[in-house]
Amino acid sequence: MQRHKLEHFPRREGDPAPLRFTVRRKAAYSDVDPMGYVWFGRYPLYMEAAGDALNQAAGLSHTALSAAGVLNPVAQLSVNYIRPILLDMEAEVTATLVWTEAAKLQYEFAIRSEAGLHAVAWAVNVFVEASSNQVFLAPPPLVESFRAKWREGGFACLQV
């Protein structure tokens, strides 16, 4: 596997274009280790901020999911660290949501700054029924509505 690979999930002909959102984050003192590098465990928090912003823009916020009785936990996360983020460095964190028919969300992440690419990652979130803690085997209704809008081009401002 290529270490700097930005696209982890396959793109299939006929699928809607991925959705993308970028946030900026400045490395705070509380993020760094004694070497002045952002501690590796903080990178997922940077990615979560971008993913949450993307979900909010797409109508899949934690509030909306919770109101529908749906939880959306991370089932898989893989991070490739390329170069450290340093104290006070400002980074752009991009979350990309890649189409799938399955009962999950597929994210790809990239963290960049003026120094270049710092990390790439991918994550899979599943859907869980809040009342029973059971994993959905088919996408819940809120997600089906979201996907119908995506298919129809309703998120053109987020599409790449």
Secondary-structure blueprint of this entry?
Elements: E1 19-26, H1 43-58, H2 62-67, E2 70-71, E3 74-81, E4 90-98, E5 104-113, E6 116-126, E7 128-129, E8 134-135, H3 141-151
Antiparallel strand pairs: 1-4, 2-7, 3-6, 4-5, 5-6, 7-8
Structural class: alpha+beta
How many helices does DSSP assign?
A: 3
**Number of E strands:** 8
Query: Ends: how far apart?
Result: 24 Å
What would the average pLDDT be, to the nearest integer?
A: 95
Low-confidence stretches: none
> What profile does the largest beta sheet have?
5 strands, antiparallel
> So, CATH architecture?
Roll
For the record, the count of structural domains works out to 1
Describe the structure.
With 160 residues, the chain is of the alpha+beta class. The protein has one domain (19-158): Roll (Thiol Ester Dehydrase, Chain A). The chain has three helices and eight strands. It has a five-stranded antiparallel beta sheet with strand order 1-4-5-6-3, covered by helices on one side. A three-stranded antiparallel beta sheet has the order 2-7-8. The longest helix has 16 residues, at 43-58. The radius of gyration is 16 Å and the shape is globular. The model has no long low-confidence stretch (mean pLDDT 95).
In short:
With 160 residues, the chain is of the alpha+beta class. It is built from 3 helices and 8 strands, in the order E-H-H-E-E-E-E-E-E-E-H. The chain has a single domain (19-158), classed as Hotdog Thioesterase (Thiol Ester Dehydrase, Chain A).
Feature tags:
160 residues, 5-stranded antiparallel sheet, 3 helices, 21% helix
